[in-house]
Amino acid sequence: MLPGRSRTSVLVFLVPPLLLYLVAVALPIVQSLVLSFFSWDGVTDLRLVGFSNYVKMFTADPIFWRAFANTMVYLAVCLFFQLGVSLFVANLLSYAGRGKEVAKTLYLLPAIISTVAISFLFQRIYSYEPAGLINQLLAGVGLGDLAAPWLSQVNTVLVAVSAPEGWRFTGLYMLILYAAILAVPKELEEAARLDGASTWQIFAHVRFPYIRPVWVTTMIMAATYSLRGFDIPYLLTNGGPGQASELLTTYMFKTAFRSTDFGYASSIAVFIVIECVVAVGLILLLLRRGRENA
Amino acid sequence: MKKHLVGLAGAVTAFALALTGCSGATAQPSTSSTEIVPRQISWLLSRPADGSVITIVKKLADEYAAKHPGFSLNLITTPDRPSYLQKLQTLAAANQLPELFDTDATPFTQKLVKQGKLVDVQKMLTDLGLYDKYRPLALDYQRFDDGGLYMVPFEFELEFFWYNKALFQKAGVSVPKTLDDIVSLCKPLRDAGVIPISVDGQDGWPLLRYMSYQPFRLAGSDYVDKLKKGEAKMSDQVGAKAVQWMSDLGSNKCFQDGFSSQGYTDARDLFTSGKSAMYQIGTWELASLTNKDVPAAVRDNVDFFTLPTVKDAVTADNEYTVVSGIGMAVSQQTYDPLMKDFLKFVLDNYSERLAASGHLTPMQGYEPTIPAGSSDLYKRALAEVNNLGKKIAFPWDTKLDPTTNTLMQQELTLLVQGDSTPAAFEQKIDASITENAPKFFG
Amino acid sequence: MTSTVSAPERRRRLNLARSFTNLLVVLIVVVQVYPLVWLFVTSLRPAQEFASGNAFGIPSAFTWDNYVRAFGSADLGRYIFNSFVVTGVSSLLIVLLGMMAAYAIKVLGFRGSKIVMGAFLLGIIVPVQIALVPLFINYSRVGLLNTYQSMIIPLVGFALPTSVYLFVSFFEYIPRETYEAASLDGAGPFRVFFEITMPLSTNTVITVVFVNGIFIWNDFIFANTFVFEEGMKTIPLGLQNFIGAMGSVDWTATFAAVCVTVTPLLLVFLVMNRAIIYGLESGATKG
């Protein structure tokens, strides 16, 4: 505690941010929680229904479970790009020669393009009739047989809508991880190399343990942002075909604004919050395990 | 500390309830006065920003404002329909509906009517001396199935199947007489290397149009009016026939591959670039089907046919899907002498100007001006208006409850793609109607 | 293992590995950048050529028509201006409020600071969609719809947790002695904040602004819910305007609009590139 601080000074610094946080985040969450116990269509009066929204959600709504499973796949694809690919690229970059700076800037570019533009773009990239970029590339390298309407097939659409989200922020997370790698003491790596460790061994035994805390922060950021993922699936396929790319967030949104079932939508929202809390809890647990083992 | 927390939680909860529960208390303009007091009014629309409706209304509002200083019309448009509906529903939930807003005769709108939020348009038009000037079909499209009329139409468009004569010839097929003929055209067309029908599968409504055809021919609008309330089943004879037909369209590869991720423009471009042989759309696209950018080889070969019939049809050949566009609802809360006067001015002058821009009008007696240089097709297509029958095939998306509507659009895609079966489709739709219909039609 | 390989052989292998690395880096750059280049090329492509299905070949001609249509059908300048206002004000608030909260929690300290920190952390994991309906109703009651505030308040609120978290982590790195020395010189908590904490935090500020700025610049969902007046639309919302009434899209004009709207941020980004990357690198590792 800073000597000379006073009650007033704490209040001056704490109250404005806390107030805004309460009004913008805490209040609506509480309101949602309250609303989830009601049935409300936005026009007629609220009707208290107790837990029946939750009962329906867990026992009688196959679309909800479908959306939940899809969300998990979406999360996995995003994490693959934002943790896996970005870690790989960050490592790669640390060995690269000149032009690193330019490469870093270029990697970041997709992150500043608005989502609406990204989804317009990917609609063309995945297009089948007329052939989009991917299908033309496939035809170009003689794999024309593999060409497919990626966004129309039930078994490819989910990965296809998840990839753009993963792709666009790869650069951002890569940069954070790259920065962490830079901070790894060179002496440690040098010592390992002199001991005859391969590049992979250096990564696994020196670098990764060192950057683990940053990696976990990145993981929490990437996981929570992905669990809230909404724009790209909403704009690209609107959850279709059928419910093949429906996420919990798009399903919630539709329930609220298409079916005007605000009560049920709120209970889905509450579930998303719980799901995020659980995900972060698991990540932190993993971190503790990793530390104990290390 | 603990006490404080409990108190806070209580206050927040009470606040939350207060926010969502009570109804807004917007000042109601005095209805007793007959004086016109100019002010700003807003119209929330879902129409193209540079389209005829907005252009004409904007101009009329300016003219009205010149005579009534202090008046202005604020046009807020969200052409993308899903975004628009979200906005409309949130506004309704917050009790913030503007003076004028666009909506279809959906079950949701019917709820607003039951709450007394909308002006009775039948009464209003009669009052303004305009009711008899409208085409009955233009008004019918806006009606609820109990006959109530709460929206004003601003368009009048006929929906046709456009086809490419050259491609039909190439495949050696002729114009289909019945709906089942359409299915049997697909193989020869595919064999000739042509996409039989291009469809916008990304938006749900076009496939839903196809879904409505068989029932309309077999049972008129009765079937869907019963179906939506759960009084008829999807698995009934009429419904099953429609489901099977949709499934057949899919298994015969009638639509382009990957249609479900292809949008409105893609479908149109496939037709105008000569890759697909048929394309179902309304006369609102006439300009883009006949304009000079369309390659001559396609433009000179475009023709149209109206909705084919079926065996034992109960509706006549000249009865098919005719739409008068999304309608304009008038908020009861803010309906005052100014609104009345302004609407009379707009509606009095609107149809004439719309006709001058080359469109059919919701009022009768205005001959559309055919744009200079457009092909003979333009004229012939619009002339069909004189042959129209007495009934219209309603699009289903304005009929069904919103949850079933969404589900049916999703499931139709799966059915046509072969990812689902007719039986599974029927079962899911029937279950959804059983669950959701009572919320809207109970 | 290394002893068995001769020195030149080792250098050769190293060179090979390095060339391969560089090749991979370039390849990934292409994957990241190609779509954006394509976006730009398409915005110059004649609309008719795009419609006829040849969307990926070399354009037969270049045209500015698409740009003319893009500017004709939407007030792009307005969208850009609005996006800058929203992003700018939000970033300022996120930094200022985040720093203040972190300062109170970490530097000043108080009973219950752990609880407050926990409350903030919870916000990192709350999905924004949950707030849409209640916020909409709240805003409409107090007349905040269609204002910059209606976008800024929730954007700041939901970004605040990350900001607080990053600042708290950073403040751990500032040695206590720095503060104690300043206190002995008679500096009160306010002077310490403005004269020590703030100047030291530059890198963290850059990290916070950049990470949140990107998400705010791209925000679609709040803008789409709380704003409908044409004059208040931000870029993501404005681009949605290019989707026509029944789903029709003028693709080439849309891409032109995308290029126009991307340019200002791209310029900012390129000009500040070094500072951003440097700041991110030094800020993030301590986060």
Q: Quick recap of the structure?
A:
The complex is a heterotrimer of chains A (294), B (442) and C (287). Chain A has 294 residues and is mainly α. Chain A contains 12 helices and 2 strands.
Describe what this molecule looks like in 3D.
With 294 residues, chain A is mainly α. Chain A contains 12 helices and 2 strands. Chain A has helices spanning 7-35, 52-59, 62-95, 100-108, 115-126, 133-140, 157-182, 186-194, 199-227, 231-236, 248-257, 262-293, and strands at residues 38-39, 47-48. Chain A has a two-stranded antiparallel sheet with strand order 1-2. In chain A, a hairpin with a 7-residue loop joins strand 1 (38-39) and strand 2. The longest helix of chain A is centred in the first third of the chain and has 34 residues, at 62-95. Chain A starts with 6 loop residues before the first helix and ends with a helix. In chain B, helix 2 (52-67) links the parallel strand 1 and strand 2 (72-77). In chain B, helix 11 (237-251) packs across helix 17. Chain B is globular and about 70 Å long. In chain B, the strands form 2 sheets. A 5-stranded mixed beta sheet of chain B has the order 2-1-3-10-4. In chain B, strands 5, 6, 7, 8 and 9 form a 5-stranded mixed beta sheet that branches. Chain B is 47% helix and 11% strand. With 442 residues, chain B is α/β, with parallel strands linked by helices. Chain B contains 18 helices and 10 strands. Chain B has helices spanning 2-21, 52-67, 81-93, 107-114, 121-127, 136-142, 165-171, 179-191, 205-219, 222-227, 237-251, 264-272, 286-290, 296-299, 337-356, 376-383, 402-417, 422-441; strands spanning 40-45, 72-77, 100-103, 151-152, 157-164, 195-198, 276-282, 302-305, 322-323, 327-330. The longest helix of chain B is centred in the first third of the chain and has 20 residues, at 2-21. Chain B folds into 2 domains: 38-156 and 324-368, D-Maltodextrin-Binding Protein, domain 2, CATH 3.40.190; 159-321 and 391-441, D-Maltodextrin-Binding Protein, domain 2, CATH 3.40.190. In chain C, 75% of the residues lie in helices and 0% in strands. Chain C has 13 helices and no strands. Chain C is flat. Chains in contact: A-B, A-C, B-C. Chain A binds chain B through residues 27, 30-31, 34-35, 38, 40-46, 123, 126-130, 148-152, 154, 157, 237-243, 253-254, 257-262, and chain B through 9, 12-13, 15-17, 19-21, 82, 85-86, 89-90, 92-93, 108, 111-112, 115, 195, 201-202, 256-263, 266, 270, 275, 402-403, 406, 410-411, 413-414, 417, 419-420, 436, 439.
